Amino acid sequence: MDLNLKDKVVIVAGGAGEKGSISETILQALVEEGAIPAILDIDDRGASYVDDFSQKGTNASFFKVDLTKEFEVKQAIEGVAAKYGKIDVVVNVVGSNDGIGLDGSADDFMESLKLNLVSYFLTVKYALAELKKSKGNILNIGSKVGLTGQGGTSAYAAAKGGVLAMTREWAIDLVGNGIRVNAIIIAECWTPSYDSWLKTLEDGEKKRQSIVEKIPLGKRMTTPREIADTVLFTISERSSHTTGQFIFVDGGYVHLDRAMLGE
Ligand SMILES: NC(=O)c1ccc[n+]([C@@H]2O[C@H](COP(=O)([O-])OP(=O)(O)OC[C@H]3O[C@@H](n4cnc5c(N)ncnc54)[C@H](O)[C@@H]3O)[C@@H](O)[C@H]2O)c1
User: Fold this and answer.
1) Which residues form the domain of 91?
2) Is 156 known to be catalytic?
3) Residues 128, 84: one domain?
4) Which residue from 27, 41, 221, 231 has its CB within 8 A of the most atoms of ligand 1, so it is best to mutate?
5) What is the residue-wise DSSP string for 1-45?
6) Tens of pLDDT along 56-92?
7) If exposure means fewest CB atoms within 10 Å of the residue's CB, which of 78, 123, 135, 202 is most exposed?
8) Is the C-beta atom of 94 inside 6 A of ligand 1?
9) Residue 263: its pLDDT value, please?
């Protein structure tokens, strides 16, 4: 199936994750399809990814941005539009389950919202004029935590709930412009940050086991590649009549009958 993503300019906000992260895997998958990723990230890894790509003759760019800073987001997106003359897709990936719970301060709560929620608003706000011209689309990375809760992470839960609400809200706002807006919901996906978190626990391996046992399909975590493949399909014209959707790539974690857990 040809996804026809060749030469599509795709902003990946939070696109410079470590090797093997969800964002880095999305980046590699976009490049495989011949798309042009424009990485917006605070980490200089983005520059080294772009160097690697250009050595292979692939077009990509990196804009070093703190996505919590409105002016920086505006400037970077103007830079993408000036460089390529268009923006076809915005993929919002940035996010951190930072554990700001009921014992956190209001300032910490607000900082977490800025990263996990407000940044999504800013990228879309400033890319919108170009998306209207290209009849592009928006894809937000959501989390099960926004629907199920997790405990101990009020700000992230509020932010990811907000990301889903904005997905539906924007799908309505932009339906008249032919702009599709969707979210992919992740439950348990094996990434470097997941690994680092487990390593902070006293018995991380036991915790990992207890998590995977509760994932119905295959009793294993989702791979970043499974997320990236669904991202590619959803942003492509092959998904041309899909908007306002929450697409769960979670091995049945959120919806399947809990009776399965005993099996
Ligand atoms: N791994 C899971 O099981 C899981 C579950 C649910 C949701 N998710 C979501 O998936 C997404 C990707 O997760 P990941 O752990 O692979 O992350 P990642 O490593 O792919 O991406 C995080 C990126 O955000 C960047 N970043 C952080 N703060 C920034 C800032 N202020 N400005 C600009 N960039 C900034 C980092 O440099 C990094 O490159 C997140 O939205 C996360 O909430 C993951």
Assistant:
1) 9-187+223-248
2) yes
3) yes
4) 41
5) -----TT-EEEEET--PPTTSHHHHHHHHHHHTT-EEEEEESSTH
6) 999 999 999 999 999 999 999 999 999 999 999 999 9
7) 202
8) yes
9) 61
